[in-house]
# Entry
Amino acid sequence: MVLSRDHRLSGTMVFDHLYRARARFHGNNLVLRVGSPKLHYLKPGLMGSRNRAAVQHNSAAACQGDLRFAVVVSKKVSKRAVVRNRLRRLLHQAFIRNVPHLRPGHWLLLSLKPGAAQRSEDQLLQEWSDVLQRSGLRCGHEQHPPAALIPAEPHVQV
# Structure
C-alpha cells in the first residue's frame, strides 16, 4: 500500500531537516525522528492546493494539521531490493493504521537499522508501536507534545 500524497515525505531538504531534528527515539532495530513541519521544504507536487496557498500567504495554520511520514531502509539492512521494499510497505501500512490515533503537526522519519531484516514482522511492528508510545505522539496516551520538541528553558544558576 502506497502512502497518500497528504502523508508522504520526500526530497533532500525534507530529509536534511529531519536528520537535524532533536527528537529521536531509538529502538533495537529502528530510529524515529520527529520534526516540525516546514511546508516550504516540500516538493510542490506533494503540497496539495491548500498547503501551496498557505505557503504563498505565509500561513502557519496549514502546518498545524500536517502529519507526514517516510521510511528509510538502506542497503545495510538488506542488499535485496525486494526485502527493503517489503519492509517499507509493512511500515507504511502500520503508519496508515495509526494515523487516526496520532497527533497532527509532526513529520516522522523512520530509519531501519542493520539487522532489522532478520526480525519477524510482528517484532518490527511491536517495536514501531513501542517507539510511538515513547515519543508521545499517540493521542490517547500522553497529553503533552514530545519532550524533545518543547523549547528548552534557559538554565538559571542560583
